[in-house]
């Protein structure tokens, strides 16, 4: 029996550790008929595409293309931006802002010329700042440009809580919001385990006291630094997280995911991109939605927004076309 042909095209800008892993995760999930890796490093991008194609017999049918020409991205359904300077040990995501802002503008404007109808997903760090840069550079309708946000951070949180409570991560319903970085927060007031509010969960003698919340948040926010210190880059988890976002979009799933988008008054915040739950479908992103969070979570979210705003100001980006805070 001949397998039904898949449709769709994914273009990944940047063939480094993150970009190639995003392509690998997309290949294994069978997300598109064609996956393009675009990078100005000709030898690298050719080698990555060859390596992926060598494994084609073990994955759903797809064509993998490696190219140093942005024209290879033509007519993509979704463009994933991973190109940029790598975060070094001891360096924060926001330290990368200046150099990666210039790279983001240059690369995405080139790709937009050949893929004007695509969705644009920004992964390069600092994700929230560069999502704003991409929105400015691309000038596309609302919802078509967004960042990977705290989807990965939320997965890290669910894993951490599941280990403490000895339940499956999928049974933990908790969210990281705000910056994808040091100022991110956990929306503790709406967290639950199997429908039971986290604050009152106490099954099999296992529970999490409010006094432990900050310790957990700090550990989740610092996970990337630990990985970078040990092996130079994060790749597997972010590749899976981006595949999850792409799947929601390409398969029109209308899923709630904490991606990075412009706030236009939600939670009393405007003029910055940060993460809160949004609906992701084939048209892009809708939201963010406003959850019934308590005053502590609200204050934390606003403080995280202020951190991102300060970086936008430092880059001269308050005139983004979004209202200022």
UniProtKB/TrEMBL annotation:
- Give the UniProt subcellular location, in the record's own words: Cytoplasm
Looking at the record's lineage, which domain of life comes first? Bacteria
Which reaction does this enzyme catalyse, per its entry? (S)-lactate + NAD(+) = pyruvate + NADH + H(+)
The primary site where this protein sits is cytoplasm
Q: Does the keyword Membrane apply?
A: no
Binding site residues for beta-D-fructose 1,6-bisphosphate: 158, 173
Function in brief = Catalyzes the conversion of lactate to pyruvate.
Protein's name according to its UniProt entry? L-lactate dehydrogenase
Q: Per the UniProt entry, what species is this protein from, by scientific name?
A: Mumia flava
Q: What is this protein's gene name?
A: ldh
């Amino acid at each position: 029996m001949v397998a039904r042909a898949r449709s769709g095209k994914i273009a990944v800008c940047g063939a480094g550790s993150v970009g190639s892993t995003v392509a690998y995760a997309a290949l294994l999930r069978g997300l598109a008929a064609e996956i393009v890796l675009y990078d100005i490093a000709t030898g690298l991008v050719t080698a990555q595409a060859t390596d992926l194609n060598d494994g084609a017999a073990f994955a759903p049918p797809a064509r993998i293309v490696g190219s140093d020409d942005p024209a290879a991205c033509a007519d993509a359904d979704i463009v994933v931006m991973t190109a940029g300077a790598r975060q070094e040990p001891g360096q924060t995501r926001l330290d990368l802002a200046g150099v990666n802002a210039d790279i983001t503008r240059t690369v995405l404007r080139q790709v937009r010329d050949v893929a004007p109808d695509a969705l644009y997903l920004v992964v390069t760090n600092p994700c929230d700042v560069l999502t704003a840069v991409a929105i400015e550079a691309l000038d596309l309708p609302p919802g078509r440009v967004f960042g990977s946000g705290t989807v990965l951070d939320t997965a890290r949180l669910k894993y951490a809580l599941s280990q403490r409570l000895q339940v499956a991560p999928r049974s933990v319903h908790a969210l990281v919001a705000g910056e994808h970085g040091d100022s991110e927060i956990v929306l503790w007031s709406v967290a639950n385990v199997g429908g039971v509010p986290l604050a009152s969960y106490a099954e099999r003698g296992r529970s999490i006291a409010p006094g432990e919340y900050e310790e957990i948040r700090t550990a989740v926010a610092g996970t990337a630094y630990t990985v970078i210190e040990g092996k130079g880059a994060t790749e597997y988890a972010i590749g899976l997280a981006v595949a999850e976002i792409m799947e929601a979009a390409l398969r029109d799933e209308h899923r709630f995911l904490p991606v990075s988008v412009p706030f236009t008054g939600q939670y009393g915040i405007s003029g910055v991109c940060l993460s809160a739950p949004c609906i992701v479908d084939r048209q892009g992103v809708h939201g963010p939605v406003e959850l019934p969070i308590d005053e502590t979570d609200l204050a934390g979210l606003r403080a995280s927004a202020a951190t991102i705003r300060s970086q936008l100001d430092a880059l001269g980006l308050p005139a983004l076309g979004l209202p200022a805070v």
